[in-house]
Amino acid sequence: MKIIQPAFAGTLESSDLQVRIAPNPEGVIDILLDSTVQKQFGAAIETLIREVLSNMGVESASLEIEDKGALDCVIKARVQAAVMRGADSQEIQWSALS
C-alpha cells in the first residue's frame, strides 16, 4: 500500500497507543517511538510495527507512535488502521493482516 495522506489511529489512554502516519518523500520507513515501556519492549514494538508494515506492502512512510503500554494485538490493529486511512483504502486484505 502506498501512503498518500497523513492519518492517525488510536488514543493516548492507558494500554493503548496512537499511531500517526504520513508519506515519506525519502522512500523509507521512518519510525519515531515514544513508549512508557521503551526500555523493556521498545525493540520488540518496533519489530512488530515493521512486520505489520511489510505484510501490508508499505515500503515508504513516516510514523510517530506514542505507546501507553499496549498489547501486541492492539499495536497491530492501530498500525493497520492508520495504514488503511493513510492509503485511503477501504479494501481489507485479510491475508496481510494475520
UniProtKB/TrEMBL annotation:
The organism's place on the tree of life at top rank: Bacteria
Q: Which UniProt keywords apply?
A: Cytoplasm, Lyase, Phosphoprotein
Give GO cellular component annotations, separated by semicolons: cytoplasm
- Just give the chief location class: cytoplasm
MF-aspect GO terms? lyase activity
Which InterPro entries does the protein's record reference?
CitD, Mal_deCO2ase/Cit_lyase_ACP
- Which family is this protein grouped under? Belongs to the CitD family.
- Subunit organization: Oligomer with a subunit composition of (alpha,beta,gamma)6.
What is the annotated role of this protein in its UniProt record? Covalent carrier of the coenzyme of citrate lyase.
Known NCBIfam families for this protein?
citD (TIGR01608), PRK13253.1 (NF009726)
Name-wise, this protein is Citrate lyase acyl carrier protein
Q: Tell me the organism.
A: Vibrio xiamenensis
Originating gene: citD
